[in-house]
Specification:
The complex is a heterodimer of chains A (127) and B (223). Chain A is mainly α. Chain A is built from six helices and two strands; from the N terminus they run ααααββαα. In chain B, strand 2, helix 2 and strand 3 form a beta-alpha-beta unit. The longest helix of chain B has 24 residues, at 5-28. The mean pLDDT of chain B is 88. The chains are: A mainly alpha (127), B alpha+beta (223). The A-B interface holds A 9, 33, 36-37, 40-41, 43-45, 47-50, 52-58, 61-62, 65, 81, 85, 88-89, 92-93, 95-96, 98 and B 2-3, 5-6, 9-10, 13-14, 17, 20-21, 24-25, 28-30, 66, 68-71, 74, 99, 101-102, 136, 186-188, 198-203.
């Protein structure tokens, strides 16, 4: 009896996805691009020293000049850039039916959601 | 081909992000401001020139500041420490550069200049920064400035007349014009021996390093 083997990519990493799911991941990837652009802009501003003075804006300085704007010396915006790029990567791979990417995407988004709650708390009660 | 498509898309986005970031950084890169030698001390006839420290000090730190700007307030304490630590090696010049989007910044500059007309500019300067958090939010900051003048032992009638007078306004305008001519567009803007300090170096450690560097330059034998 001859054994029928599935193509390797489908067996180990990818399975066919319903069209709606593909569109969902594509939309997630597109939205993450907006976050990526914003985080990249803020990272560059930080590297150029703009956030050290904030153009004289007190609200901007209160947030971007605070001790909470860096983690272990790394600007939060730079961490955000990496996070949004990770979301884009995982969403893109998930749209191409890579199963592990779906898990990584869910974990990353959950961690980013927790971070968002923390930063909302910082802005509302600590700054 | 389809197998490689996600890698291509992700790689492309990563590449565009890096290139975009580099272009943006180049566009935003702070320009190193310098004060031309011939205008190093400004036009003394019109300007107020508030100086602390000996004229022969090897290092001159010139600040363009706004009394209501939070980073200026944050750096003012460490700057005082730096002044104390470097003693006669450092001379500090302060110039007014109030921003119109700061509600009380101009009034604060008037108050400082009016105190200066009674020989107490630096005392008012230090007090305004120390009390920044209080008067910045006050609905009537002018009253607070009068109370500061009282604390400093100024003649109040003269102080109030000077605050509203043309002399202080002319001095502030002169400072602003000087700042604009040098390319100052944010506060604090600090020059050490006529060389602009980049915005990201506006912290005590970097400022001390820049002053040390300027001292070393001065100590170098001229050939």
């Amino acid at each position: 009896m001859l054994s029928q083997s599935k193509p390797r990519t489908q067996q180990s990493t990818a399975v066919a996805l319903p069209r709606g799911t593909v569109i969902f991941y594509a939309v997630v990837a597109l939205i993450s691009l907006a976050g990526l652009a914003d985080a990249t802009y803020l990272t560059v501003q930080n590297l150029a020293g703009e956030t050290a003075i904030c153009g004289g804006s007190s609200d901007c300085f209160r947030v971007l000049g605070s001790v909470y704007s860096k983690i272990a010396g790394i600007p939060v915006a730079a961490i955000g850039t990496v996070a949004y790029f990770a979301v884009f990567t995982f969403a893109t791979f998930a749209a191409f039916a890579y199963q592990r990417a779906r898990t990584f995407l869910a974990v990353t988004v959950f961690l980013m959601f927790l971070s968002t709650l923390w930063f909302l708390y910082v802005q509302a009660f600590l700054l | 081909m389809r197998r490689f498509l996600p890698f291509i898309i992700v790689g492309l986005v990563g590449f565009i992000t890096i290139i975009g970031g580099v272009i943006l950084y180049r566009a935003n890169r702070p320009v190193a401001l310098t004060i031309p030698r011939e205008t190093a001390l400004g036009n003394e006839k019109r300007e107020s020139m508030h100086v602390r420290g000996p004229a022969e000090a090897p290092v001159t730190l010139e600040e363009f500041g706004d009394f209501q700007c939070p980073p200026c307030g944050t750096i003012s304490g460490p700057l005082l420490e730096i002044e104390k630590d470097y003693g006669p090696k450092l001379r500090v010049i302060f110039r007014n550069f109030p921003f119109p989007n700061h509600e009380h910044a101009m009034e604060a500059a008037y108050a400082a200049e009016a105190a200066g007309l009674q020989g107490r500019y630096w005392e008012m300067h230090d007090l305004l920064y120390k009390e920044q958090a209080n008067w910045s939010k006050a609905p009537d900051a002018k009253q607070l400035f009068v109370s500061y003048a009282k604390i400093l032992g100024l003649e109040l009638d003269r102080f109030e007349a000077d605050v509203a007078g043309p002399t202080v306004k002319a001095r502030i305008t002169a400072d602003q014009e000087r700042g604009k001519s040098l390319g100052v567009n944010a506060t604090p803007s600090i020059f050490i021996n006529n060389q602009g300090v980049p915005a990201k170096s506006l912290n005590p450690t970097a400022l001390r390093a820049a002053i040390d560097e300027a001292l070393k330059e001065k100590e170098k034998p001229t050939s």
